């Protein structure tokens, strides 16, 4: 924890260049000149950090980056020059090296006219023996569904070392689609109003999100490691397309390239699809990519069953055959080799925890029989049909969600087997599902690690589709149907902090009181722990 002077500086940082609730909207911010979207940092190493800002001007502008151990910048610890290029949406990103390990730094950018960006704060990763480290886990922030209170709550804390965002940082839908105009929270409209397809669309949507005060403040105060999921591209993205892409929207290759380019411009990330981070001797954090590099098209049970008279027999044949095809890919051979070799190297080096911060739920989750009564008779025909198919699929041994690791069982088996071969203490972090989960991961009848599944920032989960069913009833049924599931919250929005010590992982799921008003209050926190060497949650 920081001392009193650091808390005072935290307050200064929160007001230096950030009028907390008076930021311009996306269109105004994009039309503004100068430093339009604050600052951010990412890609931490023991001796380096990446710094980010946006400086809009009629022409390319050379900026000076300054980094210091003190808020007054009396003595500089590093810096450099970087150009905010119009061709890159006026984004400037620079990696500063030569820093000390495990150290907090302040940073800013200076324009040629002497104007300065807001002051940010960041830190390098520790090196050598490390007694504790805390990571905050976020995913699934759909702005029209509500306020980013989870970001705001985390930004006010003094015990976070690193932020990990594992995807759905933004959503690609046109205004009024998801959510509908009736569901959207007043004052949370985004630009552009159309669905994101072209590079300009994706850029403007990032600008809209980054105008949010809570998200800007989170970026300002903590380094972030980030990986996209599907909605940074389009819903249910895979290497050759997406559920939310059609021929009328042009080439998938072009759309994918535009989305990736905008992500690399607007996020404080290295322009590499996968990478890892070493937290002293405490943890290696791997950040794989599971969407656009090698993912095969997800299975579609509706398409599988179209025209089939014997649904149960068709599902049984699929469950025993194509579903388990060992050739199906989620990450691809090159990335699997990088990750599996990384597990082995991390363990051999004496690192205590091997952490896989990735996008989608890895634990096995099955449709409970009770769910056939959760949705009510007034649901549309397609919902009732899917409920019926889900029940039959569960009886055939098929999982609830084919878009997660459950849809790629051979790829999951390869990963968990690699962790076991390496004798890794695996901790998987995931998002995507909008609900909170704690899984004991197993392979070949033996423990393989634990999963910390984070709930969403604003996107609705189970509670939105089963409004007459209590969280306790849903979770009880899901746990009975899913042996790996240890705990779940299918009601709340929020975020997770994951604390690492040499001997224990401590996961805290924080639930915000609401997303329909700007309120940083929590309704509660659920804690679970896991001891090193057990590869399961504690009883």
Automatic annotation (TrEMBL):
Keywords annotated in UniProt: Signal
Family matches, as InterPro entries: Metallo-depent_PP-like, PhoD-like_MPP, PhoD-like_sf, PhoD_N, Phospholipid_Metab_Enz, TAT_signal
Domain PhoD-like phosphatase metallophosphatase: 135-509
Domain of life where this protein originates: Bacteria
Keyword RNA-binding among record annotations: no
Domain Phospholipase D N-terminal: 37-124
Pfam families (alphabetical): PhoD, PhoD_N
Signal peptide coordinates: 1-31
Keyword check for Signal: yes
Name listed for the protein in its UniProt record: Alkaline phosphatase
Organism: Sphingopyxis lindanitolerans
């Amino acid at each position: 924890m920081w001392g009193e002077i650091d808390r005072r500086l935290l307050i200064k940082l929160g007001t230096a260049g950030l009028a907390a609730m008076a930021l311009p909207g996306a269109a105004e911010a994009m039309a503004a000149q100068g430093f339009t979207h604050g600052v951010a940092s990412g890609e931490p190493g023991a001796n380096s950090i990446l710094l980010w800002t946006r400086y809009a001007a009629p022409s390319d502008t050379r900026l000076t980056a300054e980094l210091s151990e003190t808020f007054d910048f009396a003595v500089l610890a590093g810096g450099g020059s970087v150009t905010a290029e119009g061709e890159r949406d006026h984004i400037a990103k620079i990696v500063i090296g030569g820093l000390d390990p495990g150290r907090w730094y302040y940073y800013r950018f200076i324009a040629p006219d002497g104007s300065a960006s807001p002051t940010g704060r960041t830190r390098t990763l520790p090196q050598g023996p490390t007694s504790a480290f805390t990571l905050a886990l976020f995913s699934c922030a759909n702005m029209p569904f509500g306020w980013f209170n989870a970001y705001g709550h985390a930004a006010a804390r003094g015990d976070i070392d690193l932020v990990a965002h594992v995807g759905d940082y933004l959503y690609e839908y046109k205004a009024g689609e998801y959510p509908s105009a009736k569901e959207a929270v007043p004052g949370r409209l985004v630009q552009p109003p159309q669905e994101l397809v072209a590079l300009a669309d994706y850029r403007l949507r990032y600008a809209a999100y980054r105008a949010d005060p809570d998200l800007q403040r989170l970026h300002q105060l903590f380094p972030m490691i980030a990986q996209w999921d599907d909605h940074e591209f389009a819903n249910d993205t895979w290497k050759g397309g997406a559920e939310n892409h059609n021929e009328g929207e042009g080439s998938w290759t072009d759309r994918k390239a535009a989305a990736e380019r905008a992500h690399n411009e607007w996020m404080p990330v290295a322009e590499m699809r996968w990478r890892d981070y070493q937290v002293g001797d405490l943890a290696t954090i791997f950040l794989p990519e599971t969407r656009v590099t090698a993912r095969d098209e997800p299975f579609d049970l509706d398409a599988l069953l179209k025209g089939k008279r014997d649904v149960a027999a068709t599902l049984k044949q699929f469950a025993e055959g194509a579903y388990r095809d060992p050739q199906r890919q989620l990450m691809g051979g090159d990335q699997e080799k990088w990750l599996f070799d990384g597990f082995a190297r991390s363990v051999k080096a004496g690192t205590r925890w091997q952490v896989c911060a990735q996008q989608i739920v890895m634990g096995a989750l099955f449709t409970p029989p009770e769910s056939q009564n959760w949705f009510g008779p007034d649901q549309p025909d397609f919902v009732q049909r899917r409920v019926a198919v889900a029940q039959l699929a569960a009886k055939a041994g098929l999982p609830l969600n084919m878009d997660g690791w459950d849809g790629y069982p051979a790829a999951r088996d390869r990963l968990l087997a690699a962790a076991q071969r390496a004798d890794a203490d695996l901790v998987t972090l995931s998002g995507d599902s909008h609900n909170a989960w704690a899984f004991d991961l197993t392979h070949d009848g033996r423990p393989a690690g634990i999963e910390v599944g984070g709930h969403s920032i604003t996107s609705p989960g189970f509670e939105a589709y089963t409004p007459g069913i209590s969280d306790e009833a849903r979770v009880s049924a899901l746990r009975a149907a899913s042996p790996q599931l240890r705990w779940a919250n299918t009601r709340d929005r929020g975020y997770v902090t994951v604390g690492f010590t040499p001997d224990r992982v401590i996961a805290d799921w924080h639930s915000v009181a609401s997303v329909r008003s700007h309120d940083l209050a929590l309704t509660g926190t659920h804690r679970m722990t896991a001891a090193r060497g057990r590869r399961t949650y504690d009883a």
